[in-house]
Design brief:
Elements (H helix, E strand, L loop, with lengths): L27 E2 L2 E9 L5 E9 L20 E11 L7 E6 L2 E2 L1 E6 L2 E7 L5 E4 L7 E10 L12 E2 L7 E2 L3 E2 L3 E6 L4 E8 L5 E8 L3 E7 L2 E8 L3 E5 L13 E7 L4 E6 L4 E5 L5 E5 L2 E2 L2 E6 L13 H13 L4 E4 L6 H10 L2 E5 L9 H9 L17 H18 L5 E8 L7 H11 L4 E6 L12 E5 L13 E7 L1 E3 L15 E3 L2 H22 L1 E7 L23 H18 L3
Parallel strand pairs: 11-12, 25-26, 25-34, 26-27, 27-28, 28-29, 30-31, 31-34, 32-33
Antiparallel strand pairs: 1-14, 2-3, 2-4, 4-10, 5-9, 5-14, 6-13, 7-8, 7-10, 15-16, 16-19, 17-18, 17-20, 20-21, 22-23, 23-24
Length: about 575
């Protein structure tokens, strides 16, 4: 069933500057109308031609196509757009940016190939200066997307959607834009708050002299040259937390004239023990209970692409207003503005890496783990990870994800594998993640196929059908998925005939009563026993899966905000009593 969200279609959707963490004055948004062809890979036979609204995939309503569009494994998408470039965008180096293109693509400017990227969820860019000219320029993007057959990142997309698997999409699904800089420009910024929470290390890549100015609100508090592409800022900084999402703006200016605007939050994440000796997760050096929701980031008319910038903000604001302090971003990377809103509003993020691999066997990823049979993840065949190229792509995406999200104050935890989907060598990959980012918590194996106390950071449980529990373990124990209570909202579901939930209700009052009982009588007592975090499934309905706090089209909030806030207030009070060093 076609469901349109409450957000109206925009002429140029997502025209806001895409990267608040690295913003320039030079910006040309390339979203909006493009030409699209669907071609047979062999023979270059065109089987579809029309207009598409970027950044929405052709399978979506908001793209202007939808209506049963699908891309076969023997087909490719060809995007074309003519862009007028004036001298302002030709002042030295011009970069084209793509937020995400699913799954593999080649980019051409005036028939010159400027980029190739593999991986449907991570951002990439290319220097197109040599191919660009003043006046009209022809852009072309060619994409292939083989979903499961590629062994690459696909998240919850499926060529046979149903229950917890969703409609596959393809092509450009995040913003496309240009920016121009002098020949010597600021290539990157890396922000690391130090453990004492009174110092922040800024590392840059820039070929000329540059300086930094830091602001507290409108007041300038620090101004200094950056020597040898790094500086340590010392100040009596306020710390960032969900209760106090304090951010500091800063500007870096290069001698060449390049200027970048950004911000940082000063916080630390880690593991320690409470006064009773139980392992706890920490925020700013103190025990902290992470109480959150699972968010898959799907929209009824945009699939993985948010319906609008406001739609992202409203989702996060609703969760914050309900009293949650964390979102687990499930098997997807969002546009960078989503993380900006988490930074601004004060919501911690547990970020999943996106799964890939071959066909997932039900016995291996569900039945056997449910019965308690776990498996060594060096067995590539068992986990459908025999394809070396797929494993290498996952490892490459780890680096790209870390680089893209490193400066986000909100990201507290990296979740590497979920429920055995494409899992492999989790111990080695945990070590890789830790070597690239030692400032955050690592949930190596979320759900099951735990690899033992010496091989992961957390004991991470998914519990739906059995009583909630805190097993004995020297690691922090987290409930990284639970709940999944569902109720159908007529005229606001994807399919009136099919529904999926872990516990199904027909009566609204019984539904609300069950949620209160789940949190207060079943979850709350576990905090004292050592539970460190809980992730309720889930923020919104997604296609046949109707266990959201809000409907798929965001038109109806199924669990009233004040009702949920009151429940979470009791959870917070219990956590405050227990989480003391």
């Amino acid at each position: 069933m076609a469901l349109v969200t409450k957000y109206e279609n925009e002429e140029i959707p997502h025209s806001e500057y895409p990267r608040p963490q690295f913003k320039r004055d030079s910006y040309l948004c390339l979203n909006g109308k493009w030409k699209l062809k669907k071609m047979k890979i062999v023979g270059d036979v065109c089987v579809f031609e029309g207009d598409i609204v970027v950044p929405f995939s052709p399978e979506t309503i908001k793209s202007g196509i939808g209506d049963g569009f699908s891309l076969g494994t023997d087909e490719k998408l060809v995007y074309e757009k003519t862009v007028f470039i004036d001298e302002k965008m030709l002042r030295g180096v011009t970069i084209i940016h793509f937020g995400a293109v699913d799954q593999e693509c080649d980019v051409f400017v005036n028939s010159q190939k400027v980029a190739h990227h593999r991986g449907g969820y991570t951002p990439f860019c290319a220097d197109i200066s040599s191919a660009l000219r003043e006046g009209n320029n022809d852009l072309r993007v060619e994409c292939v997307d083989k979903t499961e057959a590629s062994h690459g990142a696909r998240g919850k997309q499926s060529s046979a959607p149903g229950k917890i698997w969703y409609t596959a999409q393809s092509g450009v699904w995040q913003s496309v834009w240009l920016e121009s800089m002098p020949m010597e420009y600021i290539k990157s910024i890396k922000v690391t708050p130090l453990k004492n929470l009174k110092e922040v290390k800024i590392e840059t890549k820039c070929g000329c002299k540059h300086k930094i100015t830091v602001f507290d609100g409108k007041n300038e508090i620090i101004s200094s040259d950056i020597c040898e592409n790094k500086i340590v800022l010392s100040w009596n900084f306020d710390t960032w937390s969900p209760e106090n999402p304090k951010l500091y703006d800063f500007v870096i200016e290069a001698e060449s004239g390049d200027k970048v605007y950004s911000y940082f939050g000063v916080r630390s994440f880690g593991i320690g023990k409470d006064g009773d000796g139980k392992a706890r997760l920490l925020l700013n050096g103190k025990p902290y209970f992470y109480n959150g929701v699972l968010d898959q980031g799907y929209y009824s008319d945009g699939l993985l692409t948010p319906s609008s910038d406001k739609a992202m903000y409203d989702d996060i604001k609703m969760i914050k207003d309900m009293g949650f302090n964390m979102i687990r971003k499930h098997l997807k990377l969002e546009p960078m503005r989503w993380y900006y809103y988490c930074d601004k509003l004060g919501v911690c993020v547990w970020q999943d890496f996106v799964n890939g691999g071959g066909e997932y066997k039900f016995t291996h990823i569900a039945a056997f783990p449910f019965l308690g049979f776990l498996h060594d993840d060096s067995d590539y065949k068992y986990f459908s990870r025999e394809d070396k190229g797929g494993r290498e792509e996952f490892i490459a995406s780890v680096g790209e994800t870390l680089e893209a999200l490193y400066n986000c104050a909100c990201v507290s935890t990296w979740v590497i594998f979920n429920e055995g989907w494409g899992q492999f060598d989790s111990h080695k990959i945990s070590e890789l993640v830790r070597s690239l980012d030692s400032t955050r918590i690592i949930d190596s194996v979320s759900g099951w196929h735990d690899q033992g106390e010496d091989k992961t950071t957390l004991r991470s449980l998914h519990i739906y059908y059995t009583p909630l529990k805190v097993p004995r373990d020297s690691r922090p124990v987290v409930l990284s998925e639970f709940g999944g209570y569902s109720i159908k909202t007529k005229r606001h579901v994807f399919n009136e005939e099919k529904e999926f939930g872990y516990k199904v209700f027909r009566d609204g009052e019984k539904f609300k009563s069950a949620i209160r009982n789940l949190f207060i009588n079943k979850l709350k007592p576990l905090i004292k026993k050592g539970l460190c975090a809980a992730v309720y499934t889930q923020l919104s309905d997604v296609e046949e899966e109707i266990n959201g706090l809000v409907t798929y089209d965001r038109a109806y909030i199924k669990v009233p905000v004040d009702f949920m806030k009151e429940i979470n207030g009791e959870i917070d009070a219990e956590a405050s009593n227990v989480n003391k060093m």
